[in-house]
Amino acid sequence: MVTEVVAGTLRAASRGLCVLAVDGLSLDVAESALSHAHIRPLRSTFPSTSTTAWLTAVTGTDPGRHGAVGMVYRAPGADHVTHLVTGETYGFGSPRSPGDALLHTAPTLFDHAAAEGRPALAIGAELERLTGPWVEAVLHGARIVPSPAAGAPLTTDPVAVAERTVREVGAVLARAFDTPPLVWAYVNLDDHIHRHGYDARLREALLLLDTAAARWADAGWSVLAHADHGQVEVTPSEALADVWARLDAPAHCRMPGGGAGRVRWLHPLPGHERRVADMLRDRLADHALVLTPDELHARGLLTATPAVRERIGEVVALATSPHFPVPDPGVAWEHGSVSDGETLVPLASWNPAPDHSALP
């Protein structure tokens, strides 16, 4: 849906389109903070995590097709799991089989804009620093606008992130373009929300973004913003973390588990799938819903394509309580599962004014 909205808005934009890709923003917070915007609800992907959701947002393809089924998962044929963004691998012993590609690429909204003869530019110091298949797939076809902040340590303070975004987007919008461009800016609020939630500092950052977006719209630009997922408050249980660690071990599994935040899976030894699922279901009790890939498919959460089956574990746990054993017990807010707080996100728009005057 996002790709269709972006494409349609860009074609109708007389001056150009700016898209703010806001990481970690839930629908209810957006509705209360973006006072100048018209907001529609979107439903995130499953898992509700950045690697999955952003790739779907820029390509319009389902996770069952692109294969980015979380943050940490198995490449087809591998005997270990890989962190999709960092490239780190985790196995029980030395990896013997590297496996095949972690994901499948598809044309992006940047590719489509460029095919129509429109400049397609991407802004975001955090993404600019990344290498590897995921960021290459997300930004394929875009011309990266170098950030002055890219060479220095990056802050997670949301106000500083918003100020930098407004400054760098404003500088691009002040340029002269022969054809209305697509200007896409990544806004990393996610790191702050993981530690502090949707606090006053976060809301101040949203006010800055809302004010700037309204100003750009008044100057004739079409402006959209959307998020990849929201977050919910968590209080991870040490006892449940111990349960997970005992099962996520060579005695029960052929390689370490994978997943993303409040969705995690195990790779049981062959023939032990039901036993491991029953143990996990019994010991996590009301804190998780334990399913197979087929059951995820039946619930409409994740299409059980070959791309999914080759990557995901046979036993999948979806968090149903704040005490679920997330990979990082130091977080105060997390995402990945199926609650509305995690999956309902905003699609915001600021309509351009009739007067296409220069930016102030």
Give a description of the structure.
This protein is α/β, with parallel strands linked by helices. The protein folds into two domains: 2-64 and 103-232 and 340-350, Alkaline Phosphatase, subunit A (3-Layer(aba) Sandwich); 70-100 and 235-330, 2-Layer Sandwich (Gyrase A, domain 2), CATH 3.30.1360. It is built from 15 helices and 16 strands. Strands 2-16-9-1-8-6-7 form a seven-stranded mixed sheet, sandwiched between helices. A four-stranded antiparallel sheet has the order 11-12-14-13. A three-stranded antiparallel sheet has the order 3-4-5, with no helix packed on it. The longest helix has 19 residues, at 200-218.
Write the layout of secondary structure elements.
Blueprint lengths: L1 H11 L4 E7 L3 H7 L4 E6 L6 H10 L3 H4 L5 E3 L6 E3 L5 E2 L18 H7 L4 E4 L1 H4 L4 H6 L4 E2 L13 H16 L8 E7 L1 H7 L3 H19 L3 E6 L4 E2 L4 H10 L5 E8 L2 E6 L4 H12 L3 E4 L1 H6 L7 H4 L5 E5 L13 E2 L5 H4 E7 L10
Parallel strand pairs: 1-8, 1-9, 6-7, 6-8
Antiparallel strand pairs: 2-16, 3-4, 4-5, 9-16, 10-15, 11-12, 12-14, 13-14
Helix pairs in contact: 8-10, 11-12
